[in-house]
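Input record (one chain):
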Amino acid sequence: MKWIFRFVVLVVVVYGGQTAFRQISLAHERYELRKQVQAQIEALPAAQRRAAALGVYLSFYWSGSNLLPTVCKKEGVDLSDYQRAYADRYAAEHDRVRAAYRSVGGSEQAIISALSAGSSDVFKKALLRAADISHSGDSMADGCRAILKKQDKVLDRMNFAETFPYVWGVADVR
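The corresponding structure, as predicted from the sequence alone:
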């Protein structure tokens, strides 16, 4: 009987350790990404920083609102509910950024075109990680289903101002 209890405790400890490691790993990746984006913006002349920050936001927005659902659709998973919820949640913020970007001479359509022509490798990696973290499988389709299952939590994480506070401050959107 003792061995069963010990085994259960071991399983709980191992599972908890894996979960904690994944969370720490994700937090570290977000930190490194923030640091990298900040360094890239700071490397620009001061007059170009705001436009660059606004462009980063628009890239983030369009990636989350359109590219991610497109990748998942190719995997046979319909994220149209997620897409609508994303647009609804961040529409006012997106409108303000779009207007600010136009005011500095930027073209949102150029960003959309560049993103559409780019690779979806980043999404593939993220979807595989989502599947792994949610323990829902090991394919991109599993990652898409994990996003659908935890849609509200994913939408909360797509808050640009919280994800990239430095960039949001430089964008200076009111």
